[in-house]
Amino acid sequence: MTARPWDALIPESDRETYRLAGFGTPAGIGTRPALLVIDVQYRTVGHQPKPIREALKEYPTSCGEVGWKAVARIAELVAFFRAKGWPVLYPHIAPKSSYDRGAFAGKVPGVMTIPAAGYEFVREIAPVKGDILLPKFQASAFFGTQLASYLIGLHVDSLVFTGCTTSGCVRASVVDACSLNFKALVPEDAVYDRSQASHAVNLFDMASKYADVMPTADAIKALGAIRTPG
User: Fold this and answer.
1) Where are the domains of the chain?
2) What are residue 184's DSSP bridge partners?
């Protein structure tokens, strides 16, 4: 059996319990997918790859070098979607003003001190003309944004989630997508987190309940098999 990112953290007995209960059944992908690139800004990776403790000196919201590894996979997916003419959307953290301080800022005060350069999109995956930008102030890409409206207008039935953090904005967005009956696919090496334990455990939970989770190479293969209706 192919090793999964969570195998070292989730006991086999727990995984067997989920299998016996029927969790984790592959849901497949639809015929009109869109790609979400969530929060891939310099504030989450830094301006160059560094170990996490070094990266935090630049931005307290950085995930360090694991983010840069994911950026390479995200770039592959962005190029694939653009070649297909499929939608690419960028839910991203909007710059904070003093009046934006809320419950999350109370838990993580550093989010209020990010300079303007931190909010720029990472060059390797930056949006181009025709991509849809969605500034957001909360974890889910759906909360307080026009994302659902755009997806309906584009006749999208499936979402591919990339970006960060696996345990935060990605997971919150995946749960909301499932609640809205969109099929969800998470390329496990195109999402990232400052905690590798949280990354792995949340991938397991999403794979069990809300999304299909697989490596980027497998995701591109599955997406390449889609025959989009005219």
Assistant:
1) 31-224
2) 159
Residue 100 tokens read as 């934006």
Give per-residue pLDDT as tens, 88-136. 999 999 886 656 556 566 666 666 678 889 999 999 999 999 999 999 9
Q: Which of 63, 164, 169, 178 is catalytic?
A: 169
CB of 211 closer than 8 Å to CB of 185: yes
Please check whether the domain covering 31-224 is classified as CATH 3.40.50.850.
yes
| Element (DSSP H or E) covering residue 65 | helix 65-84
178 an active-site residue? no
Give the angle subtended at the CA of 87 by the CAs of 81 and 91, to the nearest 5°: 105
Contact indicator for 71, 40 with CB cutoff of 8 Å: yes
H helices then E strands: how many in the chain?
Answer: 9, 7
DSSP letter (8 states) at residue 115:
-
